Amino acid sequence: MNLVLDSITVEGFRGVPTEQTYNFRGKNAVFQGPNGSGKSTALQAIEFLLTGEIQALRGSGTGGITAPKHIPNLQVDPKDTVVRGTFKDAKGTFQVYRRFTNRSKIVAERRPPVFSELVTLANSGLLHLTREEILELILTTPGNRKEQIYQLINTGQLDDRRLRLKGVQRKASQAVDHASKSAQDSLDRLDGIAKGSVSLAEGRNEQTLDTDALLTEVNDRRKRLNAPPLTTLPTNQSFTVDVDSPVEQASHPLQRTDICQDIDTLQSWVATISDHQMTLDHTRRAASALQADTEALASLSELSLIQQGRQFVDAETTSCPLCDSNWNSEELSRQLQNKTERLERIEQRRDELITQTNKLHSTASTPIQPIQRLLKIADTVDDIDWTPIRQFAGVLQAIVGQAEKDIIGEIETFKIERLNVDLESFAPTDVLNQLEAKANQFPDQAELQQTWDELTTLEEGYSTWRAATKEIRNYETVEREITVSKEEYIAARDEILGDIFEAVSKQFEELYSLVNPDETSFDPKLGQTNTGVKFDVGFYDEGRHPPRALHSEGHQDLMGVALFLSLVSQFSPLDRTPVLLDDVLMSVDATHRKRIAEILASELSHQFQFIITTHDEIWAKQLCDANAVPAENKIMISEWTPSGGPELEGNEQSL
Amino acid sequence: MSDDIETRVLNRFSSRIEQSPNVTADTHQILVDDLQSMDADRTELLNRLVEQQDS
To answer: For A78, which DSSP code?
Structure first.
């Protein structure tokens, strides 16, 4: 694949305000002129033509420099900024150009594959070598060298892929930790219920659950819930399979709290039945006594009249104020006093009977409602003989019925015999005891619920533990596989890059030794490390050292050029690749430069088309004398002015 | 030019893990496909690797 640069024409670009053409004629060329005369601008124009960028205007130390401000010439309209080039391949010449205003696009008369390869090389940086880039190749740290070389050889996403595997490895490790914590949390919950009996060990270990112990705990709860035991821990069904829920199990009426309270209330009443009997008896006797003296009760109505009349009977009155009949005041007062005392005793007995009747009503009423509620469940508790309860209820209701009557008003017809009851003989003590015993056979609903909750929590904890341990296994497997894969990827990368670096190192040594044939044990080694690209060289049998350790600045410059050319040679598919060397050998002494000029002419010009800049007339002359550069391709720039740009000596180039 | 290095490294990587007893064939295929396309995020890749453990 042959391609050479014939010429470039620059207009409105950097320090070149008006159109200027540089002819290379497909051969090597050298720009020679004083500092600031515009030599580097010519090389930047070629770089801009092929890439649309100028590397020197980017990167560190270029703050404040912008392409719109600093690529177009300051005196021209950026629309007029354009670089044109003429290339020659096997089919002849063709024109290309790039305008600043559409700088992402190169316009080509035709675009042979070899030209596209050149553009690719240029975009990777394998076109234009400056002193700065030599520093980044030779005198830098392995990490920075790696950045520079990776860019030059365009490793693409090699590092991204390594970092991707590393990132996934880290995520897998984090997932293992997360699942381990979840497994441990579920174990802690299980242990909390099983009182520490199911956890075998703690830590990043999936086999920490004693499943036999857990099965024992599960069956203990199932037994309390009246369910058959499980033979193994189920994985596809619930721990509560075949277990009636607490609500279902607490459906018997004797498990109802209100029913249990009623039984208790009645038992308490029966336990103090002698007190209730006394109340009944007392009431009966009081009523009986009053009933026996109904006349006295009737005369109670006279009490008020007598109490009023007594105020008219005193020593000074000797006759009745109503009928004027004479009376004996003293005797009359005595009679009225006796009568009043008698009636007041009758009144007291009457009040006592009322009080006693009220007390009896209250006492006899107390068991009636609990009994009525109990009788409502009689149909569902049919293994109990409820007859005593019903009889007892009838007796109490009869007593209450009597106590509710107007006993004073109806004392003459009051049926006292109805209060003649032996309560003890009706007390349903046995039935109440039977009901209590039966209720006690049933478990408490709250206990059932707690047992049920424990069983479901054991199930949930076991389910979580199983899911978490499965995650641990999966993520650990992935973590192991990714770890191996990452190591294999690094090994693959190092093998491939190792081959490349070995080839580059070999070519580098050949190039360097052409100039310094007497330097023994040079043996340069370029190699991939974990963090960068290491580069060291031998020094006269004095061991291996970094290039800057023992070699002179001139030797370091030469190493930079040799390494760059080796990389271009390794990656360029072109038979002859254009290379721009911008003032890169100025630390090399004249003797070595003469040797370099000879080598450029004899050994390298068939591989590279060199476009070189220098301010050194001797170096330019050496290049021409050695036939590295034809005399007509020595482009002399005498000075630079803002309005005219670079002024070419003899002006033959702009023809 | 860049494709050469990347492709060569990927091919070498594929060949190495194919021979590794510690990496399954499914994982090998998922990783090679993923590193070629680089179109999924890392969590998605991890999920894909875990899912194939169950299958």
So the answer is: G
The whole-number pLDDT of residue A472 equals: 92
C-alpha–C-alpha distance, residues B39 and A587, integer Å = 48
**Helix intervals (H) in A205-328:** 211-224, 246-249, 257-271, 273-292, 294-298, 302-309
Closest residue by Cα to residue A488 from B4, B43, B30, B10: B10
Q: How many CB atoms lie within 10 A of CB A283?
A: 26
- Would you call A484 and B17 a contact, using CB atoms and an 8 Å cutoff? yes
Across the range A47-63, mean pLDDT stands at 81
The pair of structure tokens assigned to A310 is 């007594």
Q: B5 and A153: CB-CB below 8 Å?
A: yes
Question: Tell me, what's the pLDDT at A405?
Answer: 85
Percent of chain A with pLDDT over 90: 52
Spatial separation of the C-alpha atoms in residues B48 and B54, rounded to whole Å: 10
Size of interface A-B (CB pairs under 8 A): 103
Give φ, ψ of A539 to 5 degrees: -140, 95
Average pLDDT over residues A29-39: 94
Angle of CA points A96, A99, A100, to nearest 5°: 145
The secondary structure of residue A209, as a DSSP letter, is B
On chain B, the residues whose CB falls within 8 A of the CB of A153 are: 1-2, 5
Task: Tell me how far CA of residue A197 lies from CA of A153, A258, A459, A466, A474, in angstroms.
Answer: 64, 39, 16, 18, 27
- Residue A111 falls in which region: left (phi positive, over 0), alpha (psi -120 to 50) or beta: beta
ipTM for this model: 0.96
Judged against a pLDDT cut of 60, whether residue A204 lies above it is answered with no
Sign of CA dihedral A417, A422, A423, A428: negative
Whether B1 and A573 lie within 8 Å, measured CB to CB: yes
Residues sharing a CB contact under 8 Å with residue A97, sequence separation 6 or more, in sequence order: A49, A82, A83, A84, A85, A106, A107
* A484 shares contact with chain B (CB less than 8 Å): yes
User: A22 near A7, Cβ under 8 Å?
Assistant: yes
A305-357 tens-digit pLDDT: 887 777 777 767 778 877 888 888 788 888 888 888 888 888 888 888 889 99
CA distance B1 to chain A (A): 7
Check if the beta carbon of residue B49 is closer than 8 Å to that of residue A482. Answer: yes
pTM above 0.90, yes or no: no
Q: Which residues pair with A88 in a beta bridge?
A: A4, A93
Token readout for A405 is: 């009557």
Mutate to test the interface with A, among B5, B51, B52 (most CBs of A within 10 A): B5
Rounded Cα distance between A604 and A366, Å, is 125
The shortest CB-CB distance from A481 to any of B27, B35, B43 is to B27
A144: exposed, middle or buried (C-beta count within 10 Å: 0-12, 13-18, 19+)?
middle
Instruction: Please tell me which residue of chain B has the smallest CA distance to A163.
Output: B42
Partners of residue A165 in chain B, C-beta under 8 Å: 31, 35
Contact at 8 Å (CB) between A486 and A162?
yes
Query: Could you report the per-residue pLDDT of A73-103, keeping only the tens digit for each?
Result: 989 999 999 999 999 999 999 999 999 999 9
Q: In what order do the strands lie in the sheet with A4-11?
A: A20-23, A4-11, A82-89, A92-99, A107-108
> What is the rounded CA–CA span in Å between residue A182 and residue A191?
14
Q: 3-state DSSP call for residue A613?
A: strand
pLDDT in tens, A458-498: 999 999 999 999 999 999 999 999 999 999 999 999 999 88
